[in-house]
Backbone:
């Protein structure tokens, strides 16, 4: 079970309030230390990243590679590390059928999270998205089990059209996100959308429900202020922070191997700063 020091009801209340107005950044830690540091910086909520976590375990980012119970244990780890609301990247709900999604969502809620996302990617190369009615039924099943639990976590429904290379991702996403909103999703999300007019179209189509936009590369010219101006309520970064950390590690290791120099250590985070932060946490346990 989640750490009792982390008040799930309070976290859910705070998380829901963040979606009502304005725009907030939902950064994605991949372990307890990064979650705590994001709280230290003043972020208001965090979300897990399936990619960041998988890479930390030397695994690819896939449901098959990271079993459900390992993912659930990871959610508990992040929940226990911070007092902030935590949104779980629950991928496809670890099930194809609505009944399986419902059973797994119940387990996810029990980890103490304040929200969770369910995507419509099937993992099947031939049919990379679940058939429309099945995709909608999966969100309905998640909604029903949340309502039955009496624990009103924020349900985010994702359309993966851009990520699976759909030939018309905007049309597909609009059709599905509207249906997901009608099926009971609290927040809508189409990772991969980046053009302002397309983002605005999604925001308008599902209004008044909030929209999450993913920013995970440095070739996007949109700032937080610009996304807020488009009506976006929530901005996540997926595995980008984890990949930034990997980038620093890879560059430093290569310099040592190729030149014998340790000059890249000049960019290292100060030992004293990190140690003091985690020492304070240990003393407050």
Residues:
């Amino acid at each position: 079970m989640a750490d009792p020091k982390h008040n799930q009801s309070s976290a859910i209340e705070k998380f829901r309030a963040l979606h009502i107005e304005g725009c907030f950044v939902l950064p994605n830690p991949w372990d307890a230390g990064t979650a705590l540091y994001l709280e230290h910086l003043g972020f208001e909520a965090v979300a897990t990243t399936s990619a960041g976590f998988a890479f930390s375990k030397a695994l690819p980012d896939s449901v098959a590679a990271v079993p459900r119970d390992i993912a659930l244990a990871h959610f508990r780890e992040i929940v226990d590390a911070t007092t902030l609301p935590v949104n779980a990247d629950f991928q496809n709900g670890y099930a194809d059928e609505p009944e399986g999604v419902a059973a797994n969502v119940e387990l996810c809620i029990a980890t103490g999270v304040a929200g969770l996302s369910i995507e419509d990617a099937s993992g099947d190369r031939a049919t990379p998205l679940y058939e429309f009615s099945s995709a909608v039924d999966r969100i309905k099943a998640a909604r029903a089990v949340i309502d039955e639990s009496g624990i009103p976590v924020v349900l985010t429904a994702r359309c993966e059209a851009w990520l699976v290379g759909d030939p018309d991702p905007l049309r597909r996403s609009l059709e599905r996100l509207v249906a997901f909103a009608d099926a009971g999703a609290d927040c809508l999300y189409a990772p991969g959308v980046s053009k302002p007019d397309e983002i605005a179209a999604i925001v308008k189509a599902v209004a008044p429900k909030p929209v999450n936009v993913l920013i995970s590369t440095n070739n996007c010219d949109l700032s937080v202020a610009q996304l807020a101006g488009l009506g976006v309520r929530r901005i996540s970064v997926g595995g980008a922070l984890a990949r930034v950390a990997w980038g620093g590690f890879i560059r430093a290791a290569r310099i040592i191997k190729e030149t014998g120099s340790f000059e890249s250590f000049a960019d290292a985070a100060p030992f004293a700063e990190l140690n003091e932060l985690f020492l304070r946490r240990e003393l407050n346990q």
About this structure: The mean pLDDT is 96. The beta strands are 24-26, 46-47, 86-89, 115-119, 154-158, 187-189, 211-214, 234-236.
